[in-house]
Amino acid sequence: MPFAVQSCLDVVFWFSDRALNDREYIQPQKLHRLMFLAQAYYSVAYPGRKLMPATFVTDTLGPIEPTVFHVFAYGRPHMVEANPIADPVAHFLDGIWRRFGQYSADQLNKKLAEHAPVAAAVAKGLGEEIPLAAMVKYYGSEVASRRGGGPAPAVDQVVKPRLMRSQNGKAVAVKSWTPGKK
Which domain of life is it from (predicted)? Predict the structure, then answer.
């Protein structure tokens, strides 16, 4: 199944630009943590789909995407242009930003260290891949069953439905249809 965006760099540029619009400099650590959360929650919200072609591995402070880490080692590259992001994906990323963008890099590092998929990968060592299946399991079924009782919010607390207006002007929640499982 195709990714929602063509490159993880598109997500990086979206978060970086969003931070600048909010008059904030986004630290690289914070950027990686937001990307990790976006990937996890997107795969929960849209079962079987990945937000971006990215792999997350453990680092001394938390999950990183190695390609992004390498490309942005000396700041934002000037020769790379972002691809346009579709409105539903931008709405999703906005939900991630509204829920987690308020936290500092240190706060996100501390929170994510408590999350099972990160902790399990860290226990295996640095540079260990954090499997998407473990992310989906934790942020989906496990978190959803705790509703507010755990260290991570449920997907419906992170991504709010898009609101549109009916022909009568009444606000209605809109989400894409996904077929049920057999």
Answer: Bacteria
Which residues touch 163 (CB under 8 Å, ≥6 apart)? 171, 172, 173, 174
Report yes or no on 181 lying in a domain: no
pLDDT in tens, 46-95: 988 999 999 999 999 899 999 999 988 777 777 788 889 999 999 999 99
Domain encompassing residue 29: 8-174
Please list the alpha-helical segments (H only) found in the chain.
8-21, 28-45, 66-71, 87-100, 105-114, 116-124, 132-136, 143-146, 155-158
Tell me which H or E stretch contains 162.
strand 162-165
Q: How many structural domains are present in the chain? A: 1
State the residue for tokens 């540079």: 127
Is residue 118 a contact partner of residue 112, using CB atoms and an 8 Å limit?
A: yes
Q: How far apart are CA 56 and CA 7, in angstroms?
A: 14
What CA–CA distances, in Å, run from 62 to 107, 108, 114?
11, 9, 10
Q: Within a domain: residue 46? A: yes
What one-letter code names the amino acid at 24?
A: E
For the entire predicted model, the pTM comes to 0.82
Asked if residue 182 is part of any domain, the answer here is no
